[in-house]
Amino acid sequence: MICVHIRLSGRVQGVFYRAFTQSRAKELGVNGWIRNLPGGGVEAVLEGERQQVGELLKLMKTGPSGAMVAGMELSELKCKGYDSFEIVHY
C-alpha cells in the first residue's frame, strides 16, 4: 500500500475533474479524497496498491476532456486506511 498527496494546477476546475477522478479511483480500487482549492487548483490524496495508484496518476495527468493539467506536485504520505474515494469541499 502507498499513499500520495497531489496538488494539480491548470484548467482542473469546472471541467468535471473531481468526478472523473472519483470514478476512475473507484474502478481501480483506490481510496482517498479530492477537492478544489481556492486558487483554482485541485488537491487529492490517493491510497492503494502501488500499481493502481500509478494507473490513476497517469489518468489524472490528462483528466477529462476540457481539462488541461499544467502541473502536478506529488509527495508520499503515511497511509491512513481510507475505505472509499470521496469528493470533499474546502
Molecular structure report:
With 90 residues, this protein is α+β, with helices and mostly antiparallel strands. It has one domain: Alpha-Beta Plaits (2-Layer Sandwich), CATH 3.30.70.100. The chain contains 2 helices and 5 strands. It has a 5-stranded mixed sheet, covered by helices on one side. Helix 1 packs antiparallel against helix 2. The radius of gyration is 12 Å and the shape is globular.
Q: What is the correct CATH architecture? A: 2-Layer Sandwich
The structural class is alpha+beta
Distinct helical segment count: 2
The share of residues in extended strands comes to: 35-45%
**Biggest sheet, strands in spatial order?**
4-1-3-2-5
Bulk shape: globular
CATH C-level class: Alpha Beta
Described by strand count, sense and barrel closure, the largest sheet is:
5 strands, mixed
The domain count comes to: 1
The mean pLDDT is: 97
Helical percentage: 25-40%
CATH topology: Alpha-Beta Plaits
Give the distance, in angstroms, between the N- and C-terminal Cα atoms: 26 Å
| Number of beta strands | 5
| Element-level helix/strand string | EHEEHEE
- Provide the low-confidence segments as ranges: none
